[in-house]
Design brief:
By secondary structure, this protein is mainly beta. The chain is built from two helices and eight strands. A five-stranded antiparallel β-sheet has the order 6-5-4-7-8, with helices on one face. A hairpin with a 5-residue loop joins strand 7 and strand 8. The N terminus is likely disordered. Bound molecules: zinc ion. Zinc ion binds next to loops.
């Protein structure tokens, strides 16, 4: 179960039908890239956090979608975020609910409010989880998870405390 990108639905259905351990689905699972999110994932390849901007009203949003959440315009552009923001909300995970997370606990899952406005769900790293606070200034970094058959890296944006 390494790559669900191209046949995700079929393989998920097969795994469910066989009543095998669903936890296997988590290991190595990659997101399914659709046109509405491709700008975001293209950005991660070059280590840019990209957000969707509405050319009609200026609203910024993440995740991206087919239209602006503010004015419903479909005139949208992916723009580079400066990658900084504040912890909006967070939780410290102490219980590994999957074997592949055993070496990660405790870890922080947080809503990060970017300076441009959108809130992104991610991890806060490089800090004692118990030192994380609402309002903590953070900056993005990219955690390389894997590469595909063509050597294109799969990276997830994560955040760590910053001085700004
Ligand atoms: Zn708009």
């Amino acid at each position: 179960m390494r790559d669900l990108e191209s046949t995700g639905r079929t393989r998920v259905a097969d795994a469910t039908a066989s009543a095998g351990p669903l936890v296997d689905l988590v290991i190595g699972m990659k997101p399914v890239v659709i046109p509405e999110t491709s700008g975001f994932w293209d950005g991660t390849v070059v280590q840019e956090l990209r957000i969707q901007k509405c050319n009609a009203c200026g609203n910024t949003q993440l995740p991206g979608g087919p239209c602006c959440a503010n004015c419903l315009s479909q005139d949208l552009t992916w723009v580079k975020s400066n990658g900084t923001g504040r912890v909006f909300s967070f939780s410290i995970v102490h219980q590994a609910l999957h074997p592949s997370f055993m070496d990660r606990v405790p870890y922080v899952v947080a809503d990060i409010q970017l300076d441009e406005g959108p809130i992104v769900l991610s991890n806060v790293t490089d800090v004692d989880p118990h030192d994380v606070r609402i309002g903590l200034r953070v900056a993005v970094w990219f955690d390389e998870q894997d590469t595909d058959a063509f050597g294109v890296p799969f990276r997830l944006p994560k955040f760590k405390p910053s001085e700004q």
